[in-house]
Amino acid sequence: MEEKAQATTFYFTNFPEEVHPQELKHRFSRFGEIVDFFIPSKTNKFGKQFGFVRFRGVEDAELIEAKMKEV
């Protein structure tokens, strides 16, 4: 039986409202294989949009987190 690769979820916020979700997903795809990407229609408690991106097989979550700040 094939072992399932673990997925790591990242929360992101503070992105321009005019950016299309597919553009964000494309930018995040350079960090690894995306298994899920979601931006809810509601905002966080600070009134900002937010979202979640899940990557398969992340070996260094801190490195990806640091690189995501450049997006």
Give an overview of the whole structure.
- The mean pLDDT is 88.
- This protein has helices at residues 21-28, 61-68; strands spanning 7-13, 34-38, 50-56.
- A three-stranded antiparallel sheet has the order 1-3-2, with helices on one face.
- The protein has two helices and three strands; from the N terminus they run E-H-E-E-H.
- The protein has one domain: Alpha-Beta Plaits, CATH 3.30.70.
- The protein has 71 residues and is of the alpha+beta class.
- It is globular.
What's the gist of this structure?
GO terms for molecular function: RNA binding. With 71 residues, the protein is α+β, with helices and mostly antiparallel strands.
User: CATH superfamily, please?
Assistant: RRM (RNA recognition motif) domain
Based on CA atoms alone, the radius of gyration comes out at 13 Å
Number of strands: 3
Written as H for each helix and E for each strand, in order along the chain, the element string is EHEEH
Q: How many discrete domains?
A: 1
**Major pleated sheet:** 3 strands, antiparallel
Write out the strand line-up for the largest beta sheet, numbering strands in chain order: 1-3-2
Structural class: alpha+beta
Strand portion = 25-35%
Helix fraction by DSSP (H/I, runs of at least 4):
10-25%
Q: Segments where pLDDT lies below 50 for 5+ residues?
A: none
CATH fold name: Alpha-Beta Plaits
Shape: globular
Keywords: mRNA processing, mRNA splicing, RNA-binding, Spliceosome
Pfam families: RRM_1
Protein name: RNA-binding protein 25-like
GO molecular function, one term: RNA binding
